[in-house]
């Protein structure tokens, strides 16, 4: 049930590898019950109530560490985001609410950006937070998994002009630097130095750590001297407790022991829809569920065979059977609901007749033999792969399904290349997935190697004009829809269950790791 | 009805000398260490890659391999590890570099507390039930207990645990669903948190203890001295206290030992259900993170525990059964 997946797997906000225990926390932002609240977050609505306590259950392990750079723990990351701060708060729609920065503006070709920090930001030890701290923290994260988002920053060429101003030079133009520097756990630490001892933890965030026991519990207390106390840090105290099992977290919530059960299972949540004592929150950034089809080897090196499988699959059935009403169908493109998604392409239907004729046109002998690897690293992946094998048999495929334990799945990437396809689950916008899956040098490139496409993508990422960028990205995605390597069949939200008296969950501006500093009590 | 378990005499015949016992125990632990090390080394795929996730760069993977000494051959790593073990050094976690002994000490104490509470509970309830049933075999109480104990033993511990949570935490709200042990105080001083996990463990072993005790009570009650005592008109209660229970005591020792060993498995399951901060939870996360030194340490410690417990139980049987002392 647990995947040693790295939550910092992907670089920018909301782009997280999703597994179970050590896998990431993805939380509602601008969710279903409060869509009117814009990107300004909780503060945009009526002023949330101050005071009170929250007890929240998260996955954690005894390996939890205060060191936010080394840590791989959901609970530990939640703690880190309450104690430290990122430059901004990124939202699933691509917008960014500035937190520490007043402005972050590009030059004409988006290759050099000017950062201006807000005045009066102080760390918990009273020292000011400066651009030197920002650049040093970037340097600390560079080369780690979290640093992938800011890989385009040329740290040698970037300079702090004064305590509040810096020029950030990039190796290649990037249109969305504000989102990239506001993602994952890219927090600003004094001198860029992570602390691993309780007394050494110094952040600029609204909370300080009152007590810490790895793998068990962290108590956070509100700082009276927080530099921007009106808009964040509503609760007096937050107690984070470790509960590795999703069912146990939910039981604890239902018994009134905790107010927040993080990352609950669809089946359990589906039984609680009518329960007035529990509110289920759906994360706005949903993870895509897919199979990478191996374009480098038969049978999926043939475009028509890939298309045939894409028409053979009954996505509605898969979603209905495996996601218990919490998911929606995918259209073979990653990042539905996230920036740069091409939503103008019609949904690919379930069309077995078309699939059969595509296989005939392909001229391959049937049944078409293929092996698909799958693993419970995301909701419904194993069941969906088995269902796909059944559905595809009717049109002339003979798919062998190999189920791999989650701890082994990522440990043997060489096996992936041997398979005809690999099940995968990922939260990621188109611009996050492309460098991994579609660019010629991507670590998960399954054969989509097209120099023109690569060049087009680089143009789009460096394009500051939103309309032009959209045209470029839409075109690139149309190519993938027509002949790409992925069969994205569904999208599934991450669920958080809370007591009804917990407010600000759906309007919390971040969706990577739950950011509890906007959470407040409503009763 | 079930066949009675091996009587005290049969047990006595198997008790080896202390020296042979010790040598045997040592060999078992050494064997376990080899098997564990080989098994964790032979896990499919690369542990470092499994932990760092699919996006780790080649440089990062290589640096981790070097840091952990994984470029050395397995036998060399084993020798280094076993010699560290001989000096009491369990190594360091590959995930956060903390000494394994530090990581394990608190969970170990917590697990022992939980297991001890459950063991005490199951020995008391199981003995009471076993004696009650054994004194009137075939009676209503006996059949009811048999039905109950068969039912609970047929249900896996995690199901029992989940049902207890649903009933006593979610519905009745009498007890907490999560065992959120306050780490600043010993777990034994937080009984409210221990009740449900201990109950789940107790139920998982209740049937075994009950049936063992029942059988030995049946045995003892059929012995000539017990019959003679009853024929002499000695009150039933005294016969039980003086003749039947003492005869059942060695069996109880053995039952206690086997229950403790069986609990090792169930503790892992129950700890996960209740989020109890013990060795089971530690082991589970270590496995999911492929933290090999932690997995190895837990395995060795558990093996040592099992060997020690069975040795102690045998020792106790020898003390309680004078004939056994000369049986070797």
Can you walk me through this structure?
- The complex is a heterodimer of chains A (523) and B (328).
- Chain A has 523 residues and is α+β, with helices and mostly antiparallel strands.
- Chain A contains 14 helices and 22 strands.
- Chain A has helices at 74-83, 131-141, 177-180, 246-254, 266-270, 303-312, 315-322, 352-362, 381-393, 406-409, 413-418, 430-438, 451-461, 466-483; strands at residues 16-17, 53-58, 88-90, 96-98, 101-106, 112-117, 159-160, 165-169, 207-213, 217-222, 237-242, 260-261, 279-282, 287-293, 328-329, 368-374, 397-403, 421-427, 486-492, 495-498, 502-503, 520-521.
- In chain A, strands 1, 14, 15, 16, 17, 18 and 19 form a 7-stranded mixed β-sheet that branches.
- In chain A, helix 7 packs antiparallel against helix 9 (381-393) and helix 13 (451-461) packs antiparallel against helix 14.
- Chain A is globular.
- The two termini of chain A are 36 Å apart.
- Chain B is mainly alpha-helical and 328 residues long.
- The longest helix of chain B has 39 residues, at 236-274.
- Chain B contains 14 helices and no strands.
- The two termini of chain B are 33 Å apart.
- The interface between A and B is large, with 54 and 46 residues.
The main sheet of chain A comes to: 7 strands, mixed
Number of strands of chain A: 22
Distance between the termini of chain A: 36 Å
Low-confidence stretches of chain B: 1-12
Provide the residue-averaged pLDDT of chain B: 84
Q: Pick out the low-confidence regions of chain A.
A: 1-44
Number of helices of chain A: 14
What integer is the average pLDDT of chain A?
Answer: 87
Please count the beta strands of chain B (DSSP E, at least 2 residues each): 0
Count of separate DSSP helical elements of chain B: 14
Biggest beta sheet summary of chain B: none
């Amino acid at each position: 049930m647990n995947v040693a997946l790295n939550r910092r797997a992907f670089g920018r906000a909301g782009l997280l590898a999703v597994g179970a225990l050590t896998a990431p926390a993805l939380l509602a932002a601008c969710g279903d019950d409060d869509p009117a609240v814009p990107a300004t977050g909780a503060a945009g609505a009526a002023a949330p109530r101050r005071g009170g306590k929250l007890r929240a259950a998260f996955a954690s392990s005894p390996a939890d560490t205060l060191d936010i750079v080394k840590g791989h723990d959901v609970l530990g990351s939640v703690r880190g985001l309450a104690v430290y701060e990122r430059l901004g708060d990124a939202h699933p729609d691509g917008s960014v609410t500035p937190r520490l920065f007043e402005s972050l503006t590009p030059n004409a070709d988006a290759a050099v950006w000017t950062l201006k920090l807000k005045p009066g930001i102080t760390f918990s030890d009273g020292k000011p937070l400066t651009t030197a701290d920002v650049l040093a923290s970037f340097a600390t994260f560079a080369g780690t998994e979290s640093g992938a988002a800011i890989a385009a920053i040329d740290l040698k060429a970037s300079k702090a002009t004064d305590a509040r101003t810096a020029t950030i030079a990039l190796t290649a133009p990037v249109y969305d630097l504000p989102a990239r520097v506001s993602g994952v756990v890219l927090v600003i630490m004094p001198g860029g130095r992570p602390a691993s001892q309780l007394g050494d933890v110094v952040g600029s965030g609204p909370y300080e750590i009152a007590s810490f026991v790895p793998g068990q519990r962290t108590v956070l207390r509100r700082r009276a001297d927080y530099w921007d106390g009106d808009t964040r840090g509503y609760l007096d105290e937050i107690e984070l407790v470790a509960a590795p099992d999703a069912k146990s977290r939910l039981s604890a919530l239902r018994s009134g022991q905790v107010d927040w059960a993080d990352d609950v299972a669809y089946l359990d949540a589906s039984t609680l829809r009518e329960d007035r004592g529990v509110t289920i929150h759906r994360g706005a950034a949903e993870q895509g569920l897919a199979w990478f089809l191996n374009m480098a080897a038969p049978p999926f090196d043939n475009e028509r065979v890939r298309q045939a499988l894409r028409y053979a699959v009954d996505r509605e059935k898969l979603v209905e059977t495996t996601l218990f009403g919490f998911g929606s169908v995918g259209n073979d493109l990653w990042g539905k609901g996230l920036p740069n998604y091409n939503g103008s392409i019609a949904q690919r239907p379930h069309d077995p007749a078309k699939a059969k004729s595509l296989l005939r046109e392909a001229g391959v002998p049937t049944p078409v033999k293929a092996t698909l690897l799958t693993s419970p690293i995301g909701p419904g992946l194993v069941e969906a792969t088995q269902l796909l094998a059944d559905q595809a048999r009717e049109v002339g495929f003979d798919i062998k399904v190999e189920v791999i334990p989650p701890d082994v799945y990522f440990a043997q990437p060489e096996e992936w290349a041997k398979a005809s396809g690999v099940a995968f689950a990922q939260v990621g916008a188109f611009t996050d997935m492309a460098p991994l899956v579609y660019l010629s040098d991507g670590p998960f490139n399954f054969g989509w190697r097209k120099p023109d496409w690569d060049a087009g993508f680089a143009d789009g990422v460096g394009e500051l004009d939103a309309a032009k960028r959209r045209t470029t990205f839409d075109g690139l995605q149309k190519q993938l829809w027509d002949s790409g390597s992925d069969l994205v069949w569904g999208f599934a939200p991450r669920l958080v269950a809370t007591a009804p008296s917990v407010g600000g969950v759906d309007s919390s501006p971040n969706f990577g790791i739950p950011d509890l500093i906007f959470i407040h009590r409503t009763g | 009805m079930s066949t009675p378990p091996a009587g005290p005499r049969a047990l006595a015949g198997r008790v080896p000398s202390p020296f042979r016992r010790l040598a045997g125990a040592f060999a078992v632990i050494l064997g376990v260490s080899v098997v564990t090390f080989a098994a964790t080394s032979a896990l499919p795929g690369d542990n470092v890659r499994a932990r760092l996730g699919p996006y780790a760069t080649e440089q990062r993977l290589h640096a981790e391999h070097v840091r952990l000494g994984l470029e050395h051959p397995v036998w060399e790593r084993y020798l280094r590890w076993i010699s560290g073990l001989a000096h009491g050094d369990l190594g360091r976690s590959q995930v956060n570099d903390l000494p394994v002994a530090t990581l394990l000490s608190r969970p170990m104490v917590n697990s022992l507390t939980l297991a001890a509470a459950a063991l005490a509970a199951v020995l008391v309830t199981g003995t009471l039930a076993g004696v009650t049933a054994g004194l009137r075999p075939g009676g209503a109480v006996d059949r009811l207990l048999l039905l109950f104990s068969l039912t609970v033993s047929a249900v896996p511990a995690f199901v029992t645990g989940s049902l207890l949570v649903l009933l006593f935490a979610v519905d009745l709200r009498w007890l907490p669903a999560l065992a959120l042990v306050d780490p600043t105080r010993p777990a034994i001083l937080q009984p409210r948190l221990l009740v449900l996990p201990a109950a789940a463990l107790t139920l998982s072993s209740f049937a075994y203890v009950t049936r063992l005790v029942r059988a030995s009570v049946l045995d003892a009650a059929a012995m000539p001295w017990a019959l003679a005592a009853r024929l002499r008109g000695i009150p039933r209660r005294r016969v039980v206290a003086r003749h039947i229970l003492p005869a059942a005591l060695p069996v109880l020792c053995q039952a206690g030992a086997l229950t403790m060993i069986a609990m090792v498995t169930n503790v892992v399951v129950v700890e996960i259900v209740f989020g109890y901060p013990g060795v089971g939870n530690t082991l589970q996360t270590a496995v999911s993170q492929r933290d090999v030194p932690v997995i190895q340490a837990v395995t060795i410690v558990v093996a040592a525990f099992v060997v020690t417990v069975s040795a102690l139980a045998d020792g106790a049987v020898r003390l309680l059964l004078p004939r056994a002392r000369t049986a070797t």
